[in-house]
Specification:
Length: 302
Amino acid sequence: MKQKIVKHPIRAKIYEWLFRELLRTAALITILTTVGIVLTLLLNTFHFFEGVSPFTFLTGTQWTPLFADAQYGVLPLVMGTFVVAIGAALFSIPVGLVSAIYLSEYAHPTVRKILKPALEILAGIPSIVYGYFALTEITPLLQKLIPSTNIYNALSASIAIGIMTVPLVASLSEDAMTAVPDSYRQGAYALGATRLEVVTRVVLPSAISGLVASFILAISRAVGETMIVALAAGAKPSMSLNPLQSVQTLTGFIAQASMGDNPHGTMSYYSLYAVGLLLFLLTLGMNVLSRSFVRSQEKRRG
């Protein structure tokens, strides 16, 4: 016999109310935390711009906030961030995309079950381990291949970040391609297309929104990486595009200045928040770009 369920309307209403309030509280905590971080960045950056003009900050080519003759031109940090992030993307996007194509379209289901978790293990390795690996293994190898490579250089940091973000690109891209209806593939095969033609002319165009979103997310992750660039890229702000030289990124400066003697209330102290706000705006802009691209593709399909 089926057990009869006894309903208690008052108790059910109390549980419903408690659950609703719990969800509301969690949402408010998330929103308030974000607002608090943004306000902290804005208020302290305002103090920074009381002594340094935004034009000088954004266009200056000398960054020495911790020196006696302080200069606050952030372009060298932006350039270093650009070199490292683009280098990482040039490594992770092709490797991740090819891996995703193999997992989605070519790999046997048993092989896929083994390779995908193995690939995603890379995402669980702490970034400081990647930084140490870049400094002790990648850099010596680069120096053997290219003797002019500095001990601290952007290329080894880019390779390490690229290795770290490969699982991100591969996993999200594979999910995007798996979401393409199988009827698209069967229709292409029925028209006489080869597997390569199905992948390049049917699957990839259909999954383009998810693919681009994974690419931008990987670049955003590279821009925000700290420990790898702090260990392997160096701490020399430079306007050079040469990846074999030492550079300093936005996150690298924040890590360096936060650990040093940086008195509260000084311009060097407030420069941390100015750089943090710029970094926040860069990553926010990339996320907005990714979302707008996905929405435009969805509207085009609809």
